[in-house]
Design goal:
By secondary structure, the chain is of the alpha/beta class. Helices cover about 45% and strands about 15% of the residues. The chain folds into two domains: about 15-190 and about 230-250, Rossmann fold, CATH 3.40.50.720; about 195-230, no CATH class. The longest helix is centred in the middle third of the chain and has 29 residues, at about 110-135.
């Protein structure tokens, strides 16, 4: 249901990649609740369409587009079309991402290429496409979905960790570059969030370990100090603040799962 319309978001436009499910869907619904027009893009065009329809049925305004963020030209075209359709883009959520293999010994060059292309180049393509527009308008908010894995070493999903570490540095650099233009750039670093991607990973890992998915998730939950997973609503609450007018001076930050700010520019 569309509700809690925010004065500073009403009538503005949000462009979201990976918006067909999980965190991206949550961001799309939250921005619609705040009164923004929402452009939902996803490599799964049907999933993007379902989210856009969900927003429209609740009284919001949304369009959907199939988009593979690896394709820089297609990404630039999608951004240009959104600007033409709604008159501008105020918020960009560079959220599209893939997890990749868990076991380094089973990771192929093609796996490395896919993870780095989507998680790094895809974010760069998205931001690069909208940067001139925001610089010209001297306003805008960019929010990148990184991960706590980008700041914590580990023995599994290593390509994913490397990609998220790279994108955290990109966030800080882009924030410095765009700050003189009144554009903020931030990254959120979700902890374990039970998105479809995470649940698929949990099921595969549990199967390989010979345990149930429920037992695997219980083990992971017990290792978290607060013994609870990150909820999508936790992330959308944070995102809503970071793109609000009141957050105009918060830029170049990576927000940790516990809400603490990691080293910034």
């Amino acid at each position: 249901m569309v509700h809690q319309v925010s004065v500073d978001s009403y009538g503005k436009t949000a462009f979201i990649t990976g918006g067909g499910s999980g965190i991206g869907r949550g961001l799309a619904l939250r921005m619609a609740q705040r009164g923004a027009h929402v452009v939902v893009t996803d490599v799964d065009g049907e999933a993007a369409g379902r989210v856009a329809s969900e927003i429209e049925q609740a009284g919001g305004t949304s369009v959907a587009k199939r988009l593979d963020v690896i394709d820089a030209d297609a990404t630039a075209t999608a951004v240009a079309e959104a600007i033409q359709h709604f008159g501008g883009i105020d918020y960009v959520f560079a959220n599209a991402g893939v997890l990749g293999p868990a076991d380094l010994t089973e990771t192929t060059p093609a796996d490395w290429s896919l993870v780095l292309d989507v998680n790094v180049k895809g974010v760069i393509n998205t931001c690069q496409a909208v940067t001139p527009h925001m610089m010209e308008r001297k306003q805008g908010r960019i929010l990148i979905t990184a991960s706590y894995n980008g700041v914590r070493a580990g023995t599994h999903v290593i390509p994913y960790r490397v990609s998220k570490a790279a994108i955290l540095m990109y966030t800080r650099c882009l924030a410095l570059f765009l700050a003189p233009y009144g554009v903020t750039v931030n990254a959120i670093c979700p902890g374990v969030t039970l998105t479809p991607m995470q649940l698929d990973y949990a099921a595969a890992t549990a199967l390989a370990a010979g345990i149930t998915t429920e037992d695997y998730l219980a083990e992971r939950r017990s290792a978290i100090p607060m013994q609870q997973f990150t909820e999508i609503e936790d992330l959308t609450n944070l995102a809503a603040f970071l793109v609000a007018d009141d957050a105009r001076l918060i830029t170049g930050q990576a927000i940790a799962p516990d809400g603490g700010m990691l080293a910034s520019s």
